[in-house]
Amino acid sequence: MGQLMGGDPSLLRKINQAAVLRALRAAGRGCSLTDLAATTGLSRPTVEGVLEGLARTGLVAEAEGAAAEGARRGRPARRYRFRAEAGRLLGVEVGSRRVTAVLADLAGRRQGEATRAVETEAPAAERLERLAHTARTLLGDLGVTVSALRAVGVGTPGIIGQDGSVALCAALPGWTGLPLGERLRELFRVPVLVENDANAAVLGERWVGAAAGADDVVMVLAGLSPGAGSLIGGRLHRGHGGAAGEIGALHLLGRQATPERLLSTAGTPVDPLDERAVTRVLAAARAGDPRAEDAVARFVERLTHDVAALVLALDPELVVVGGWAAGLERVVEPLHRELERYCLRAPRVVASALGGGAVATGAVRLALDHLEAELFTVTETG
Known about the structure:
The protein is of the alpha/beta class. It is elongated, with a radius of gyration of 24 Å. It is built from 12 helices and 15 strands. The model is unreliable at about 1-5 and about 65-70 (pLDDT under 50). Helix 11 links the parallel strand 14 (about 320) and strand 15. The strands form 4 sheets. It has a 5-stranded mixed beta sheet. Strands 13-12-11-14-15 form a 5-stranded mixed beta sheet, sandwiched between helices. Strands 1-3-2 form a 3-stranded antiparallel beta sheet.
């Protein structure tokens, strides 16, 4: 994005550029010089000079067919807009059974999505190839080149290091120790932001989902081995080593059944990564199957223990329950009821508004956050 900003202007010019660009992007529609001067507090000549520079970078263009309100008779005042089409952002979810890629413009508007299945036991190299194929297919279908990408966000199971490497992951074969960020930066040749899937999901829900407007949030991906992402004061809480929210490990303390036995209705283990099996048990419980009802009651009890640990520690205003299995919204009310018993102050509990799309949406948000930091954060150099 440094190339888009055009060289290394003075600190004051950078500040002015950021102010004008932010105003144009927030407006969504064309703005006149007068509009921009009033919004930014800059003089008209200064705004005009900044716009000329931004137009050369490709980030700003004159809006077509738009005249300023109240313009004097004669030639209408020119209006300018942020060119969200000047680049693209890619959000990727890497899961145990699928890879999903979402493409957005520089305003974060979704333009397309592609999903491809992958075997749960696929080695890391095969999963990475499936990721690359899914992204290439999406870009090709939309007529977008890889060179148009400005940033890529990725949500994946596991404990993620600051450099985007996977410190630990039990869900994906060969994923532990994988320098995922490095591999994907080599593939896409742009900044790549890698985050734990539950952390990405909570960012997605706060951006355009059930947690919009909330600053203290716990988002639970409620599978048989649940994970959670948390926002504290609107900021993602990763913990010292990136392991915050790994509540799926609590069963190791010896609480009742292992995850494989938790939703079992016939004495046979249930694959913790098989959301379809979880869906079937939830559906059977809804239909009145006594064994499924008992299994779901065990599931809610375990989920309550896991979520209560975070609620007692963080005191969030909101808990969002999501995941990939259909029917999880049915656990919202019993979970809230149980949290009222265990917690000093029970938060609101709601179902995810994004469902299985929360992680990929949050991955787009990661890329958008990076873009905004480059466009709007002004630092003095050298």
